[in-house]
Each structure stands twice: as structure tokens, then as C-alpha cells.
Specification:
This protein is mainly alpha-helical. The chain is built from 16 helices and no strands. The longest helix is centred in the N-terminal third of the chain and has 23 residues.
Length: 340
Amino acid sequence: MPPSSNWIVSISPHVKSAESVEKIMWTVAACLMPPLILSVFVFGVQTLIITAVSVVSCVAVEAISQKLLGKPITIKDGSAALTGVLLAFVIPPGVSWLLPVLGAVMAIYIGKHLLGGLGYNIFNPALLGRAFLLATFPVAMTSAWLPPLKNLAIFSRLGPAADAITAATPLAVLKAQGMAGFLETFGSGSSLYATFFVGWRPGCIGETSGLLLLLGGLYLMYRGYISWHIPVSVLGTIAALSWIFGGKALCAGDPLLAVLSGGAILGAVYMANDYVTSPTNKISQLLYGVGIGALTVLIRLKGGYPEGICYAILLMNPLSSVLDGWFKPKRFALPMEGDQ
């Protein structure tokens, strides 16, 4: 064949794959659509508006940031749109539409592009945006909850936070009133677990339905986009430590309630598995997940906030490369002269 200046010569192995960043990002975003649709029926069309504002804001901030920094505009790869969906999923459904706009600036411009862009960010952008909103607007982020609609009148809620009805989340009730107050508010029995698993409960926009989130996660595992190591270790650690320390006595807590009551499943499946900020080695992934689970339970039981998965993931993000460094795979080739 004649030589070509367009050829790129590199060392082996040469791996050809049909997967791409664009395909993976849009596939993950598609897996998040069923929980979003359910949120519209649970909380009203307000959730769809907030999510749309969040996605548009993240994509716009992405384009503006890349333009200002002199980089190629890559909004078609889906990474900014996915960040927008995840950012909307971790904020209350009754907040003002201005909050996802401000969160997008923190997530995309500061948390992503000022750190080097896609592949170089240290922290999960969506969670960094949520942490910023929680620190800047603590009242709105901890009180703009909406109770599940009872009559499926999804268009009855179109306004911002002024129309929000205070409806504390299960973890907030549990932390403030204990198990007695929790049972009085939400009831008990197997129907309680079923209701929480389906997603008919107060909470952030996309965190309520464990069923739909797990189904999406299983599909991503089937496609090979994520592995089971981080989700299982996160949720297993939360369940185990909540059972041991979550009750009035040792080993008297409710592990299933701990997993279903907050954003643990959303965080474990979709946030902790972020390609850039999570380890690649399997042992590292297991330890990473255990660390996230342990910090989540610590914050829930001893911290000032009822939920801890957001800060737990952000605290563990910088340690992912450290864990990968500790558990490097063994090399089979002899070191070449000059190798360190």
C-alpha cells in the first residue's frame, strides 16, 4: 500500500472498538430517562422543566467554556448533557429554576474545564454542582421537597420554590424524629419497602426509584460500560454499617431502609462509577466503594445532613488514582534498560 501522511504509527496492542465516548454518554443518559419520566408522575411536570433547564445550561456553559479557553467545542459527545441530567437528579423538585443554572456553571466551567476538561477533572462535576448549591442555598436545597402526587395531576405544579410544599425526605424524618417518627410518617411493613423501591416517596428528582435505577445499571453492566464492583461494595457497605450502627443498639438497624431511603442507589450506580473520577483496578474499585459506603453512613449518623452519599463520593474522588497506584497489575515482561 502506498504511504500516507494520515497514518498514525503507534506501539501495539491495537484495539478496535465500536464504543466511543459519545455512544457511552448518550447510552447512560438514555438509562436515566425512565426515572425522569416517573419523577414527572410523582412530583409533577416541574421536574421535567428543572431537568431541561439543567441540561441546556450545562451544554451552553460547556460551549462557552470551550470557546473562551480556545478549545474545540464538543457538546455533541453527550458528556455535558449527562452532567445536566445528573445535576437535576440530585436537587429537590421544588427549587427555583435558577439553581440548576448556577449549578451548571460550577459543575461544567469550574469543576470540569478549569481542571483541564473531560478526562482531567478530579471531582464528579454534577456532585460538585450539588455541593455548591447546598452550601450557597442551604434553605432551598433542604426544604424545597414535594410530596408525591396522589391524583397524578402532573400539571398541577409548574411554579418554582414558592409553590413547593414542605415534605421532609425519609432520611430527614429518620434523623430528626427517629424510627418512631419515621414509622408514623411513612408507615411500616412490606408495602413500605415496595413503595420506596418503586419510587413513590419524597426525595430529589431522580433518586427515588431504586427499581428503575437498578434496571438501568444492569443494562450498563450488560453492555460492559460499568462493572458490579463499585455499586455492590457501596450499597453492601451502607447496608452492613447501617444494620450494625443504625439502631438504638448494635445490629438493630434496618439495612434495606438505609439503601432505599436516600440517594444511595443513584450515587452507587451512576455517580461513583464515573469513568474519570473512579478507579480502574477491580480491587481498587472494591475499596473505593467501601470507602464511599462507610463515609455515607458516618455522615448520615453523625453529620449535620441526613444524606451523605454526595460528600462521600466527592471525598473519595481524589483517592481513586491513589488506590490504582497501590494495586497496579503485575507486569509480565522484563523491564527494559532505563526503566525505573
